[in-house]
């Protein structure tokens, strides 16, 4: 690392206020008194992610490998052709979809998926143009921008996309694929958050940009299975990830930091054997919030709309295990779960529309696409 870059990263780390002891939100009970009504817009086979085109139109991926355009004003969802083959099974398949920052002009979208191949499968990031005409939709100019290598086995792919607030860079979560030690291996693209150009290359200014390989792409390491990534209005980047038996986390993501998996966790291994707790290893970054028992967090969006004024600045997080939607308030680097709403189904993804409505998707078969608006 160049001396200037190293000093910049160290300055960021030193200037960042230390976290207080994180709160365990695992004991919060979900309420069935919902401040919103839920409109069912469509149903899908194991939907995974949503991306809003505008207040009424959106894209939906399904884990078995289909992509749809949905218009809540009427008509059946339109299947998009030209989607790549995916390695579907367990936690793997077609994953996230995101509109390029210049989508209104370029019509480009980004997809993540688990790609089959010799030796197993791996996470891939691709880009294509969404072409719509006469009630049909297809992907054009499809190109794989990045793929995790070598291929292998396992679930926990991660695969969440977030663009920097200026629209110039792409952040990508990569899970550990059920190979925990990889999250601490700086030479493997597993258990990491990557910071890339819009073309899928290592971004200039990354903490280890001069090291080449996986190190040059890495923004943070020590992650298990990150299924939520989003920027708050103040420009801070937040991530939620699943822990083992206990210890789901909400983390503030800062360059060059190590979040400790599998060396530390507020949960334990599935066989009951203990894992050292984060305070025992101060070199690792503490979560801002954790859940024990787990909620299995999936999806993350920050609310800045007008329909729910009390929610302004809050993080909205889906719960798979708890079949819930959580509202978490953020105060600087601190986080507190204020409310948890019982949804009656596993919530896989959440997004906020330009009109202030909240959209969620259920991880079910069939799973509903829901639009939430005030009662």
Keywords, separated by commas or semicolons:
single chain; 375 residues; mainly beta; Neuraminidase; eight-stranded mixed beta sheet; five-stranded mixed beta sheet; 3 helices; 25 strands
Name the helicity range: under 10%
Coarse shape:
globular
Largest sheet: 8 strands, mixed
Biggest sheet, spatial arrangement of strands: 3-4-5-6-10-9-8-7
**Euclidean distance between termini CA atoms:** 54 Å
Total of helices: 3
How many beta-strand elements?
A: 25
CATH level 1 name: Mainly Beta
Unreliable segments of 5+ consecutive residues: 1-18
**Order of helix and strand elements from N to C terminus:** HEEEEEEEHEEEEEEHEEEEEEEEEEEE
Which structural class is indicated by helix and strand composition?
Answer: mainly beta
Do you know the CATH topology? Answer: Neuraminidase
Summarize the structure in words:
- The protein is mainly beta and 375 residues long.
- It has one domain: Neuraminidase (6 Propeller).
- It has helices at residues 3-15, 103-106, 213-217, and strands spanning 23-24, 36-44, 47-52, 57-62, 66-71, 78-81, 94-99, 108-117, 120-133, 136-147, 158-163, 169-174, 192-197, 218-221, 226-231, 237-241, 248-253, 289-291, 297-302, 315-319, 324-331, 334-342, 347-352, 358-362, 367-374.
- The strands form 5 sheets. It has an 8-stranded mixed sheet with strand order 3-4-5-6-10-9-8-7. A 5-stranded mixed sheet has the order 1-18-17-16-15, with no helix packed on it.
- A hairpin with a 4-residue loop joins strand 20 (315-319) and strand 21.
- The longest helix is centred in the first third of the chain and has 13 residues, at 3-15.
- Mean pLDDT is 94; it is low at 1-18.
């Amino acid at each position: 690392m160049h001396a200037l870059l190293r000093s910049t990263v160290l300055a960021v780390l030193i200037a960042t206020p230390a976290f207080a002891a994180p709160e365990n939100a695992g004991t919060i009970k979900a309420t069935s008194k919902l401040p919103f009504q839920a409109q069912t817009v469509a149903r899908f086979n194991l939907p995974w992610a949503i991306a809003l085109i505008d207040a009424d139109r959106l894209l939906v991926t399904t884990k078995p490998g289909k992509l749809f355009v949905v218009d809540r004003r009427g008509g059946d969802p339109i299947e998009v052709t030209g989607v790549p083959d995916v390695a579907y099974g367990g936690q793997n398949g077609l994953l996230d979809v995101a509109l390029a920052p210049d989508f209104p002009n370029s019509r480009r979208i980004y997809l993540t998926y688990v790609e089959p191949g010799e030796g197993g499968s791996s996470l891939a990031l691709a880009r294509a143009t969404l072409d719509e005409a006469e009630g049909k939709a297809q992907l054009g100019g499809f190109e794989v921008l990045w793929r995790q290598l070598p291929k292998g086995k396992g679930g926990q792919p991660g695969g969440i996309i977030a663009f920097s607030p200026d629209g110039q860079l792409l952040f990508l979560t990569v899970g550990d694929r059920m190979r925990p030690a990889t999250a601490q291996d700086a030479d493997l693209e597993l258990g990491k958050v990557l910071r890339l150009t819009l073309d899928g290359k290592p971004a200039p200014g990354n903490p280890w940009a001069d090291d080449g390989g996986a190190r040059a792409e890495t923004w943070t390491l020590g992650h298990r299975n990150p299924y939520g990534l989003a920027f708050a209005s103040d420009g801070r980047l937040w991530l939620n990830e699943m822990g083992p038996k206990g210890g789901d986390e909400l983390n503030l993501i800062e360059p060059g930091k190590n979040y400790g998996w599998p060396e530390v966790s507020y949960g334990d291994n599935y066989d009951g054997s203990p894992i050292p707790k984060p305070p025992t290893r101060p070199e690792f970054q503490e979560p801002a919030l954790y859940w024990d028992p787990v909620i299995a967090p999936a999806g993350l969006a920050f609310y800045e709309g007008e329909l729910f004024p009390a929610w302004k600045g809050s993080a909205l997080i889906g719960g798979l295990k708890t079949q819930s939607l959580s509202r978490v308030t953020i105060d600087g680097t601190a986080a507190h779960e204020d409310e948890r709403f019982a949804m009656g189904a596993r919530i896989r993804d959440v997004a906020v529309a330009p009109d202030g409505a909240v959209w969620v998707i259920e991880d079910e078969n069939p799973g509903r696409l829901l639009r939430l608006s005030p009662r």
